[in-house]
Amino acid sequence: MFLISLLIFLGLTFQTFYYVEKNIEPVLHNIARVRAEQLATKAIHDAINQKIMKEEDLKKLIDVRADKDGKIQAAFLNSNEHTRIVFEATENVMHTLKEMENMSEPIPLGQALQSNLLAQLGPDLPLKLVPLGSVHVELKPKMQQAGINMVLMTVYMNVEAKVRIVIPFSTQPAVVRTEIPISNALIVGNVPQFYYDGAGRPIGSEVPGVQPPPIVPPIGINSTTIEK
């Protein structure tokens, strides 16, 4: 009798572990990955906003050069400020992620059942983030048309961090990437006396007396695509 009860118990235990491994564990991994990426992204943004974004030296990041008449000739990143900001951002993000290693985020096991009624059902599984290697920080300027002869130059900080997601009986690596705008400058060039809009209408204070000929698209030309 004891042997039969033992076999039934072992069989039920095996089926339970098999069900958890095949059905619950993949869902739990996805939940843990999404939550871990949210936590890491928030930590990165907090590290940048609390330290880097409050510095007055950010105004020196974009170096605008003008000629003797005050006309803007070029705009580029200040190399000294670029190096300093990247170094400080890397240190701050690594320090923040290192502090998260001692913290845990509870995930209710009921969320893995994909049921709204059981979503908050326990027990809670502890989720931990462990930083892996160094943090990669890069500054990238992007140009955007802001009007007639005006360009908005925005500097974005791209941060990439590798972490390990740790939940009971399982670990998996993850890469967290985020982009944060940290500085911008409006570059204004010479405004022409007149220009033509998209419909060919002249706009400005001095409209030329001679109008440009209308643009007529070619007719009857077939488009050919050559595939190799």
UniProtKB/TrEMBL annotation:
Superkingdom: Bacteria
InterPro entries, alphabetized: Sporulation_prot_YunB
Protein name from the UniProt record: Sporulation protein YunB
Protein's organism: Aneurinibacillus aneurinilyticus ATCC 12856
